[in-house]
Amino acid sequence: SKRYSITLLPGDGIGPEVISVAKNVLNLAGSLEGIEFNFQEMPMGGSALDMVGVPLPDETLLAAKKSDAVLLGAIGGYKWDKNEKHLKPETGLLQLREGLEVFANLRPATVLPQLVDASTLKKEVAEGVDVMVVRELTGGIYFGKPRGFGTNEDGEEIGFNTEVYATYEVDRIARVAFETARKRHGKLCSVDKANVLEASMFWRKRVISIAAEYPDVELSHMYVDNAAMQLVRNPKQFDTIVTNNIFGDILSDEASMITGSIGMLPSASLGSSGPGLFEPIHGSAPDIANQDKANPLATVLSAAMLLKYGLGEENAAKRIENAVLDTLNKGFRTGDIYSAGNKLVGCKEMGEEVLKSV
Amino acid sequence: SKRYSITLLPGDGIGPEVISVAKNVLNLAGSLEGIEFNFQEMPMGGSALDMVGVPLPDETLLAAKKSDAVLLGAIGGYKWDKNEKHLKPETGLLQLREGLEVFANLRPATVLPQLVDASTLKKEVAEGVDVMVVRELTGGIYFGKPRGFGTNEDGEEIGFNTEVYATYEVDRIARVAFETARKRHGKLCSVDKANVLEASMFWRKRVISIAAEYPDVELSHMYVDNAAMQLVRNPKQFDTIVTNNIFGDILSDEASMITGSIGMLPSASLGSSGPGLFEPIHGSAPDIANQDKANPLATVLSAAMLLKYGLGEENAAKRIENAVLDTLNKGFRTGDIYSAGNKLVGCKEMGEEVLKSV
Ligand SMILES: CC(C)[C@H](C(=O)O)[C@@H](O)C(=O)O
Ligand SMILES: CC(C)[C@H](C(=O)O)[C@@H](O)C(=O)O
């Protein structure tokens, strides 16, 4: 039987609860497909800060790098919000992305027919939405140098960051995006602010150049302000979106909220080689932590992405995806997606129900 | 009687049509309040490019600076989209903002009861939305240096921009925002990405420091990705938002689309002294230009903002605002806001109807 080693990073808040569910689901789906997992839990985020004083201990990064894939719960919480930058849980996440060189962040935003009412958008606008945002994750203004604090010529204090992209960075994320669009509906929309920013003009030029390798994919371009509007006006117009780190942060969150069920949405962060990082897009929700209220499905679906994109185990991935749909069809709902006529369950029970359908 | 000189910049596409309506409305509202206007039309945008080869001729900027207020229609169009940066209509707009030093961009996004169905959001989510986005307009990544193209240490081509804010820049926009919130419902939300960007940490620090001058205003902070979500989830939670140039570009457009009627939305750009710049938030809509189809109400309402914020003529402003509401109440609608049971009119007829109610 096949064997994979998986690093689990439960993190903070509801992270440990949802990871525990996803681990059980992975184990069962794997065993039914002749796959064995070797799990290693490592500290990260606020809990790592409390234990060893840094948000990403060296041992955690090392273990992650040596494994076949990494599954993260969630990080952060009020407790650490005022920490200095290098002692923020978020900084640990950025270090992990950088350390694993996972430059391509895939964020699907899908409105499931079972949950269309959860959207704040009118039914006819929300139903059938199925967007994949491909976000550049290890470059741009998140990592660009110079950055910091200083004084300008007039002796005024300043804070500054650099938005910068190099050829190889745009080329590689563009290729991932074109490949992704090709496997979906063949439409790619590149989002930038090329009417104002040189970094965006450069981005657009490289995307157009890479497009020559993908004549079967239909490429369009949109300014980021317009994209933010179009996601509200008519999200169905989008198939695959590719954009830089900061615009991707904003637009993927907007797209996910358009589905109305962010407790359902997974993500995958992939590099050229080495392990991928898989995590739900929701946060650590400290206010409901340890109350068995969290929705574990985003993490369970992240585990499915781990199988599909991280390990190439499509059959095991499909088992999990179908089990989630079955469970929804049976009417099981955690509080965040509950509506009248369904069965309200906690995190654990939701996990047990999914297991029954794997 | 009082006299004001107004520079009109009709611009491109539907710009001339909507400016012509707004000019008539200004004239009438003014005359009823003992105000006389001296209008001067100047070229700008694509039409200036075609005429004299630059998007903002020196004479235009000079005339604008010497006048009491500037009313802009819209600029841009497919025709000039591939122009080099210094020959883009958009560059003319950025030069105008910089030249007039209008650092504070006020963008209201209001859902009128008459138009609540135009929103793609569910009625219960959209109704009553009334957000004011205060966007910093002459700083940040739009103007920061260094910027441009080059090569990195590895000899790779790069494109780059600088996000930078100095003390005085944040302080002055924060003061405008606190004053604005004070006149509204006393709640200000400052949006940034202070968990990642130094420029945002600096922004937040300065906003908190200025808050001491406004103990009556309730200040909160939100990350930009969360703000993009919250505008979709529950836009009514916001009163006044203050944010940097690029986040303001994205969020104000998102907020305006949430109203569903961007043909209705005005904007004001103000400096510390000197004339303000007033313009509808919609674009030049080249596809419907010269067909008498444009909605002139965003420009008419921009003229009302000109009277109120630019000249302090509140009574004349109120006349225009009320005339617009009356006209909507009578059921007149241009195509973009048309719904069954109302009267479909063109740009000119809409203008004539507004005049009847001024
Ligand atoms: C927590 C934060 C640093 C992170 C980001 O901005 O990338 C988050 O918002 C995300 O999108 O994963
Ligand atoms: C046309 C463009 C340069 C401009 C901007 O980005 O500021 C526009 O989108 C706006 O918001 O007024």
UniProtKB/TrEMBL annotation, chains A, B:
Pathway: Amino-acid biosynthesis; L-leucine biosynthesis; L-leucine from 3-methyl-2-oxobutanoate: step 3/4. Its cofactor is Mn(2+); Mg(2+). Its EC number is 1.1.1.85. The keyword Electron transport does not apply. Pfam families: Iso_dh. It comes from the Eukaryota. GO terms for biological process: L-leucine biosynthetic process. Keywords: Amino-acid biosynthesis, Branched-chain amino acid biosynthesis, Leucine biosynthesis, Magnesium, Manganese, Metal-binding, NAD, Oxidoreductase. Residues 5-354 form the Isopropylmalate dehydrogenase-like domain. NCBIfam families: leuB. Belongs to the isocitrate and isopropylmalate dehydrogenases family. This is 3-isopropylmalate dehydrogenase.
